[in-house]
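Tokens help. Consider this.
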Amino acid sequence: MAKRPSGTYSLAMPSVFDYLDYRDLLKAHYDKCKAEETLFSYRLMAEQIGLDSSYLFRILQKDYHLPHQHVPRVLEILGLSGRPAEYFQMLIAYARARGQKAKQEILEKALALRDIGRRSLVENELALFRDWWVPTIRCLVEVVDGRANPTELAARIQPTISEEQAREAIDLLLEIGLLAKGSSGRLQLRDAHLSAGGPEKAAAVREYQGKVLMLARDALEAIPSSERDISTLTFAVDANAFGEIREMLRECRRQIQKRVDESPHPDRVIQLAIACFPLANAEGKR
């Protein structure tokens, strides 16, 4: 068998955040490569990393640790960068640490890097984005302790919606399973965080985002500055900096979602709209 280029077997893997022992991720990588190519071996994987095959085997058996000088190559093979790479290196430090206190401190830092659990919406659930107040009603249920009173819900929302619109929103959320009724009759939220990725869902999300940005514009006049935070920046950057800024924004959203989870008794519903888009480019108009 002809030797493939180094890194050929860097295949799609489960998320690094699913693991607490970095050696389990390495073993999962090996198993997936072996399933895809029966001639894949410890020797080939060891050659990719720059290790002796017997040493790699002992790492996967959790007898040895990955030497520090080989960590960058492993990150490259696994396709890890940014926060996932930081998490992987935290797992190495956690596995190597001596003493329960030190291990606990490292583990807490590692877990703080994990993604927020999100439920991916299916086709019929995209009705959530039909009107801007439907997601608002869904969140407001937490504020009012699950009371399914359309009059009360409508009165709390700004801009104003009708009682009928609030009632229809509740019915829709119950129908598509994003709210449930408890035995007491109170509404309960299902899955705090949602996502709607994929091209087939893009149109519904774009339409909803357009409505949210219109709300942000109207909030400039309708809501006192002490009750909102709206700011703008205009800047010139290169492609690399733009990529890093997008990653900063993703991390900012993740941290906000983690903080939301730490707010057990919410008293308001907030809409966060982040927009970063080009106003001019080096090639001229497109």
User: Anything to note?
Assistant: The longest helix spans residues 199-222.
